[in-house]
Amino acid sequence: MVMRTEARVSVSSGQSVVGNKASSHRLTQDQRSHIESASQLLAGGIAGAFSKTCTAPLSRLTILFQVQGMHTNAAALKKPSILHEASRILNEEGLKAFWKGNLVTIAHRLPYSSVNFYTYEHYKKFLYMVTGMENHRESISSNVFVHFVAGGLAGITAASATYPLDLVRTRLAAQTKVIYYTGIWHTLRTISTDEGILGLYKGLGTTLVGVGPSIAISFSAYESLRSYWMSNRPHDSPVVVSLACGSLSGIASSTATFPLDLVRRRKQLEGIGGRAVVYKTGLFGTLKRIIKTEGVRGLYRGILPEYYKVVPGVGICFMTYETLKLYFMDLSSKL
């Protein structure tokens, strides 16, 4: 009887130990999952902010060129000159002016890029699962489809979540001689007072129409190029591969969606300082008016500094993200 009791106690405590180990294992897995999520958010945020800071001068030049035709007679418009405009900014506003609005850019990019990269990874996993393509990851067509859709959904999610900061950034960067907004909070308050709360979302529809395809093309082109490169040259530096593939994907994305981005910028500046509304129609009406007053080339006003910006910018962003993600994964594996 004593032996049986001891045996039961022994078995019971053995089960308890196993149960505790399993519980501990589950807890460890949960912790690793949380660490992985935090790593993706942190890596994405830092990558976006760092990339935007590096290319802020070119980003401001792009915005200034994009809005040139809003309140100016088309006949009076000069041929865009990057050097001339850069010299003007330097002489009239000083060196710091090249980073005008960069603080709000960082404030926008940290959450935007975090949400963008984080949701992209999760949309990708979800799409593989619901479409049954989990076992067909080697298929190029299924991969392109998943990356394209996941990228588009991630871009729309991130843009919707952080839009007011994007609007503030555009308005601060577009200011030249007349300073109407003095900072992030002043801009948010002024827009809310002058244009109502909905004024903070002016141009959101056009933004979502443009940002979905833009991020979709960017991510799908990047993933496809990177996969092709690594399969043919597996020993190349991951940093170099990310930089090169990111730059090429940025060019493809910007070329395809630049007219939509131009309309977005102009919509964001509508009504600034009580000025008259220029574009009273929707997306297609605005595109039609720009073509009529400025020609087809007007849709690509500012594309050159955009290319100069996007090649290093997107490349740096993907490179920084991949590098930080690997670093955080290596760090978490040692915990």
UniProtKB/TrEMBL annotation:
Alphabetical list of SUPFAM superfamilies matching this protein: Mitochondrial carrier
UniProt repeat feature Solcar, residue ranges: 35-126, 142-228, 237-327
Major subcellular site: mitochondrion
InterPro entries per record: MCP, MCP_dom_sf, MCP_transmembrane
Pfam families: Mito_carr
Compositionally biased intervals (Low complexity): 9-19
Record's keyword terms, sorted: Membrane, Mitochondrion, Mitochondrion inner membrane, Plastid, Plastid inner membrane, Repeat, Transmembrane, Transmembrane helix, Transport
Membrane topology: Multi-pass membrane protein
Subcellular location: Mitochondrion inner membrane; Plastid, Chloroplast inner membrane
Region (Disordered): 1-26
Domain of life: Eukaryota
Gene Ontology BP annotations: transmembrane transport
GO CC list: chloroplast inner membrane; mitochondrial inner membrane
Family assignment from sequence similarity: Belongs to the mitochondrial carrier (TC 2.A.29) family.
Protein name: Mitochondrial substrate carrier family protein
Organism listed in the record: Brassica oleracea var. oleracea
Lineage: Eukaryota, Viridiplantae, Streptophyta, Embryophyta, Tracheophyta
